[in-house]
Amino acid sequence: MKKIAILSDFHCGHKVGLTPSGYLPDDPAERRAGWIKANKAYYHWFKRHINAHGPYDIVFINGDLVDGKGSKSGGTELITTDMEEQCDMAVKIIREIPKSKSCKIIITRGTPYHTGNDEDWENTIAERVDAKIGEHEWVDVEGVVFDLKHHPAGSSSIPHGRHGGVARDRLWNIMWNERNMQPKADIFIRSHVHYHNFSGGPDWLAMTTPALQGMGSRYGARRCSGIVDFGFVVFEVNKRKYSWQPIVAQLEEQKANLIKL
């Protein structure tokens, strides 16, 4: 039996990105800011739950490990614009995940806006944690083939359409496989959209993973309407049989405030 942790969208460096201890501001005025309280709550929840379900034999990390330079917001939403420091955060998070002695790590590259238009900063992270990295990966675990890529074929602004993009990816895989150009996959893992949804049938499963960036980005607050899911997914695979569980938080720090006049 193999236990697998599937994580994505750390967005290290962002104020509500996943931030390990030692990287938040020391300034007392900054420490009173609401985002710091939320950030601490996110990481505390992550550490408690990733440890509770481990150790893991395989860790899949599906893109957007760092947030980038924040050019669209002038860097105002970042803890740091230093890409080396953002990579340090991601490396520390990955190293602290409980693993078996023979644990394998697979990383898929995320969005160039976050991870580098001119260079892939996730390559640096992969090298430091001894991970295999690629754009689109197929991995056979105990006879179950996982198809891993950061971007789904599409997202949706309506609740009942959110599973459509990953279901479409499954159909494309069947067509590529008929041309003998891709392995036929059983499980399709996509990320990027920061919500967990899934679809499937008797012999396949497709999902988008929860994110590990909390709510509070300027883009999300001003442009997005849908539910955001914070968390990760755990699989257990044994001789072509599998079970899975989404581990999703419901944190008080994510609740909207009501203004009473």
- The name of the CATH topology is Purple Acid Phosphatase, chain A, domain 2
Mean of pLDDT: 91
Helix share of residues?
Answer: 25-40%
What is the architecture at the second tier of CATH? 4-Layer Sandwich
Tell me the strand percentage band: 25-35%
Please compute the radius of gyration using only Cα atoms.
18 Å
Which class do the helix and strand fractions yield? Answer: alpha/beta
What's the structural domain tally?
A: 1
Q: How far is the N terminus from the C terminus?
A: 57 Å
Biggest sheet layout: 6 strands, mixed
Question: What is the global morphology?
Answer: globular
Number of helices: 7
Uncertain stretches of 5 or more adjacent residues: none
Q: What is the H level of CATH, i.e. the homologous superfamily? A: Metallo-dependent phosphatases
Please provide a written account of the structure.
27% of the residues lie in helices and 26% in strands. The protein contains seven helices and eleven strands. It has a single domain (2-253), classed as Metallo-dependent phosphatases (Purple Acid Phosphatase, chain A, domain 2, 4-Layer Sandwich), CATH 3.60.21. The model has no long low-confidence stretch (mean pLDDT 91). With 261 residues, the protein is an alpha/beta fold. The strands form two sheets. The chain has a six-stranded mixed beta sheet with strand order 4-3-2-1-10-11. Helix 3 (83-96) links the parallel strand 2 (56-61) and strand 3 (99-108).
Summarize the structure.
The chain has helices at residues 28-31, 34-53, 83-96, 112-115, 121-128, 164-178, 218-223; strands at 2-7, 56-61, 99-108, 132-134, 136-141, 144-149, 187-190, 197-201, 204-208, 231-238, 241-248. It has 261 residues and is an alpha/beta fold.
